[in-house]
Structure formats: structure tokens, C-alpha cells
Design brief:
Oligomer: single chain
Number of strands: 6
Number of domains: 1
CATH topology: Thiol Ester Dehydrase, Chain A
CATH superfamily: Hotdog Thioesterase
Strand content: 35-45%
Largest sheet: 6 strands, antiparallel
CATH architecture: Roll
Strand order of the largest sheet: 1-2-4-5-6-3
Structural class: alpha+beta
Length: 150
């Protein structure tokens, strides 16, 4: 039997199961990204820049900043328990990060409808914003928690 579901209700009903599933991202684990907060349409994570994350100039590689931004985007758009995948992203690099910097990425939902959702992500170190990402996701029909959608 298929049932009509409210995304926010699904989030609160299955928040722990959703968080557990999204924390299984092995690439994020490998980078040392830690999910610190998850709400309906939002997420926050942090990581520390290590020696193996530096580029040829001795600052954090852009791919590392993109990775943490992409991770919180993925958590935010999947936070309703409905399978969502990235369609497009645009990132701007605003400042350099150094080895030892602890960076935090925060994603927030701008707009969501049945098929797509839009997010803004800011990555900061202790001093300033270091990257900004705008992202669009595609929302599939299926939920990865609970029953089926009508």
C-alpha cells in the first residue's frame, strides 16, 4: 500500500535512520568529514585540513573544499529520507585554507518542490568564508526510509 507522505514529518520520524544512512558516505569518512548537524533541508559538517589535502602552493586543494560542500549538500537534500541526487553545482573559492585549519560547511535549503530543490552552502574556517556553493538536486520518487510514496 502506498501512502502520501509529508517530507518534514518523514524527516522527524526517521531522523536517526536518515543520519545513519548518510553517515555511510565512505569518501567523507576517508577525508575525516564529521556530520555535526542535520535538520529538514539543512546540514553542517566539519573537517581539519591535513598535509595530504594541500595543493602545490601549500594551501588546501579546491577539491577538498568542494568535497565538504558537496557532502553537506547531499545530506541536506536527502534529509527528508527521499532519494535525491545532484544535478548541478557552482562553486566559488573565496580564500585559501592552511594545514591545520578546521573548516565548517553549512547547507541550507532555498526552495524545494516535488522534483527539484535548491541549496546554498558556505564553507568557513575560523576567520572567514573560504568557499560558496550553489546547488540543484533532483528528487526521485522513492524514500530510503519507511514505506512508499503515493
Amino acid at each position: 500500500m502506498k501512502i502520501k507522505r509529508d517530507d518534514t514529518e518523514v524527516h522527524y520520524q526517521y531522523a536517526e535512520e536518515i543520519r545513519e544512512k548518510l553517515n555511510q558516505d565512505t569518501f567523507a569518512q576517508w577525508l575525516g568529514i564529521e556530520l555535526t548537524e542535520m535538520g529538514p533541508g539543512s546540514a553542517e559538517a566539519e573537517m581539519t585540513i591535513t598535509e595530504n589535502m594541500l595543493n602545490a602552493h601549500g594551501t588546501a586543494h579546491g577539491a577538498v573544499l568542494f568535497a565538504i560542500a558537496d557532502f553537506v549538500f547531499a545530506v541536506a537534500c536527502n534529509s527528508y529520507g527521499k532519494t535525491s541526487v545532484g544535478l548541478s553545482v557552482n562553486i566559488g573559492y573565496l580564500a585559501a585554507c592552511q594545514k591545520g585549519d578546521k573548516i565548517t560547511a553549512k547547507a541550507s535549503e532555498i526552495k524545494r518542490n516535488h522534483r527539484t530543490s535548491w541549496y546554498e552552502v558556505t564553507v568557513e574556517n575560523s576567520n572567514e568564508a573560504v568557499a560558496h556553493l550553489s546547488a540543484l538536486s533532483y528528487r526521485k520518487n522513492d524514500y530510503f526510509v519507511g514505506g512508499e510514496e503515493e
